[in-house]
C-alpha cells in the first residue's frame, strides 16, 4: 500500500504534513514528501488517499487477559481480592479451551478496531489463544499462567512441561508474530522456590517474563510482612526473576527504592490506569517513574476490570489523571503518554523493529480520520490524538503490513460469529457457576 498525501506522526512522534508512506513486504519501505517516482510507486500496489487522515504507529497493549471478554460486565463493583476469589476464579474454572479461543478472537477484533496490533497476554489454554491470534493477523506475546501455591520445584508443575512445549511450537511462529513469555502471576499466588526455578529457566532460554506486582496496597504491604520488609519488586529481584527482561503489570504501590531496581534491570512497567481505578486499587506513580528513567508502557488489562480494549481511553487517562493527582499540569506529557502506548509497548515485547513510523520498521500502523469536529482546529495533532481523539476515529489498522481492520470491516475475523459465540458461552458459564 502507498499512503498518499497523508499527515504522519514520525519516528519521534512529531507531526509531518503531506507525506507519502510506502509499505512493502510487511515493512515501511518509503517515507517522503512526494510520491515515489514512476514504476517504484506502482510496486506498492493500492494507493490510499490520505487527505483528512493521520498515520501513526499502532498501539501495543502491554498487559492483557484476552479471553476475559467472556467476563465483561460480570464481576462489578468489587475490590480486587473479592473480585478474584468470589467471581473471577470460579468463572474461569468453568472455561473450556474453546471458550478461550472465542474470547481471544473477539478481543483481537476489538483491539484491531481500536488500532492495537500486538498485545502481551497472560492466561490459560495457550494453543487456543495462539490459534486465534494467528487467524486474526495480530501479534502477541503469550504466556501460560498457573498459580504456584505449593512450594515445590517448577519441574513438578504442569506448567513446566507446557511452557517448554509452547516455546518449541510457537516461539517465533507466524513470521515472528507469536512470541512465548514465561509467567509468574504474582508474589501472593506463588512461592520463592518455584519462582526461583522459573527465573532460572527463563534466563537460560533467553525469554521474557510477565508478572503482576504491587497491584493493591494490601498485596504490597503483605509481601513486605512475608519477606523481611521486601516489596514485590525487591522480592522478585532477590530470587533472580528480574534477571530476564520483565514486564511488571500495575506497580500501583511501588516505592522509590523499587524504581532504582527497575532501572537497573530494565523492567517495563505496564500501567493500567482504567483497570486500577475501576477496582479501587489506585494507580501507578508514573510521573516519579518517568523522572527516574523507568520504562513505562500501557495496558488495558482484562475486560472484567476495564471493560474495553480501546487503548485511546487508557492513553487519555495516562496523560490526564496525574495532572490532577499531583496538581502539576506539566507531568506526563502527551508525547510521553503516546510513546508508552506505542514504541515502549513494542520494546516491552522485545519487538525492536516495531512501534515507529520509520523506514525499515515493521508496518504496524493505524490511520485516524481527523475530519470530525473534535479534531478542529489541528493546532497540535499530537495533543489532539491524546486529548481529543477516540478509538472510533481509527479507520484502518495494519499489522506487519496486512490490513486487519478497515472502515468497519474485519478482513480476517467473522466478528458476528465471535460475538454470538462469546455471548452464548458466557451464559452457559454463569449458569454453571
UniProtKB/TrEMBL annotation:
InterPro entries linked to this entry:
Amidohydro-rel, Metal-dep_hydrolase_composite, Metal_Hydrolase, MTA/SAH_deaminase
- Domain Amidohydrolase-related: where? 55-404
Query: What keywords appear on the UniProt entry?
Result: Hydrolase
Q: Name one Pfam family in it.
A: Amidohydro_1
Looking at the record's lineage, which domain of life comes first?
Bacteria
Recorded GO terms, molecular function?
hydrolase activity, acting on carbon-nitrogen (but not peptide) bonds
| Full protein name | Amidohydrolase
Q: What organism does the record attribute this protein to? A: Gordonibacter massiliensis (ex Traore et al. 2017)
